[in-house]
Here is the input.
Amino acid sequence: MTIRRQYSLPNCTLILEGLSDGTGGNPLDARPLITILVNAECHFIGQEQRLSGGRDFFESLVRSVNRYAQEFLSQVHHPRLHEDKPELVQLEKVKEKNLHRLTVLPTAEAVPVGAGGGRFHDSISHAQKPQGAVQMFLTTVQLFDLVEGIDQFLADRQTLPDLSVTLQPLPRRYRKADEPIAKRAAPAALGVTGLAVAAIAFFLVPVPQVREPKPAESQANTTNTASPSPNGQPQAASPTPNSTATPPSAEDLEKVLTSTPEIIDPTELRFLQRKLYSKLDDAWKSREQVSENLEYRVGVGKDGGIVGYKPVNDAAGGDASKQTPLPELLYIPATGSIATSEPLAQYRVVFNKRGILQISPWRGYAGKPSLGPEITDAGVIRTLNDQLYDQLRKEWNTTPIYRKDLIYRVGVTEEGVLADYEATNQPASDYVQETPIERLLKPDAASGGQQNNEVLPQKPLAQFRVVFKTNGVLEVSPLQGYR
Amino acid sequence: MPINSPPVQSKPLILDSLTDPAISDRGCPPRTRQQIDLILLAIEALELGGSEAMLFAAHELELQDIIKNRVVLWRLRCSNPLRRAHTRRPMEVGEAKALVVIATHMARRMTVLIRQLLLAYQQLNEKQVPLENHFRLSEYLERFRAHFRSRMNPRRAKVAIYNSDEKLNELAISLLSQLLFCTGTSGMQRFWTSLFDGEVA
Here is the structure.
């Protein structure tokens, strides 16, 4: 007696008819075991053609569908291995149409004719439908229903339990490169060209001259005489007598500024500006000595170090720079000239006669500065918000001595480490020592573990508004609200 | 489904239904991490509040020992090399399995919607009607594009190729088809295996 099994999906029906050989299972079972397949049939809704065949057809269908499903999911082509005869059932992608071509070869043709069998298979993807073959186009949903019908059959251990497939990933050695050779060669070609360009560029660069450090006294003389002349290029930096290397002069800075790339990214400019401000503001002690506004053009490296400066107004020339913290903060490279390879950011720095420091980018901002890469996931922000609150609350137990609320913007890494902050109002910057912010700050946490000393955070930060109220209340909220 | 297994298991049983791929100890290869994050992105585009639902699903499936909270989930997703907030943190095989189990679980619940959208896409394509005419489909595509653009790093070459709405739509549809395959009887195993195609020894 034939037993019929049907696997119905919305778009595809798979019908298997077979016999039980009576050896396995209980014959009185409601679902007796099918061990011999007589006929397999497969048809799709909306398609006239029905596919049917014996065990060879069905085995091939299972194999091909299994392989094609994996190809479809991974988009990695699976080469056919260890098979010299073409599959009875073949599936191919129809490009640009989102369709899948299912081809069933007539049984006679599937038998390899001499050595031509393999070649025949290769040509089939390009050729039109081979004679006698059945061909149909399936949509993705139809294809899925076919896969699902077969998976249901495979999961059904009462039907042909000897037929199974193994799901395993394709080994690396069979993966074809995704890109054509020209594309793959492009980076290498670029590299070679780049090397050639670099070689030419280095050829043009003059061999650096070793400069003897000048005696300090004569240096002091020249600066003194240079200061009153407004048309000459005044010497910007006066070295301390014990310094071994000559600090870069204004001319050097000028040269460097024209030859090195400039940092113009508004975000980075803003970060460097803040760093420069806190550095200079901390170091500027003798504020009452400044009787006129001193204006400088200052070049800052990526790490926030001051690599050169140049007076802008007359008052700032000559010895005036000694009243500012610029000479002591100047980064003096061992070779005596400015480190030239680094990109520089330029600022206008004004030491105001009333003792106020003002810094702005030399060329202004090219756009709106952002706060660097940001964590935007509302859930993560909520968790970090609570974490930051607890952290600050635990550390903040002094009685407020200030009259106004202190408002800060605080950036926190995903681990909850405080990596960046900025005072939002004046009292906040004046009384920062009254808060635990400085103690908890770990600017390195945001640098992404790289050794480049960049000021700009490499890791995304979640930004919060933190308010230390005069009545001892602490408020932490996401800077942008919950999005 | 071993969902109802006793919770005392040190390792959730459900993960055993996925085989261990023959990869190095350094965790999952970049393509695996990328695909997992993208499929989750597609789920988020299908379902509002998708990331909350993922955490809920982790709880339901007793995977909360692996996906402890949203920070862990977010960090795992940031192991996708295409992300703006990409972290070099490795993704363990167990973590990848947990995410795949969650993704397929959620896909199964959305089977009807996924089928409808794919059928609609096919029909609109055949009739050459713009996709915007189907409200639900265009909503999905729009959300997917917005998610992708806000989270992926445009300076990466692999992201830069998705520079138009059309290309992002194609990606969104391809991910939707993958989600459809995830809903099947062996969908979870099939999706899992495909993640390591061409990556194993």
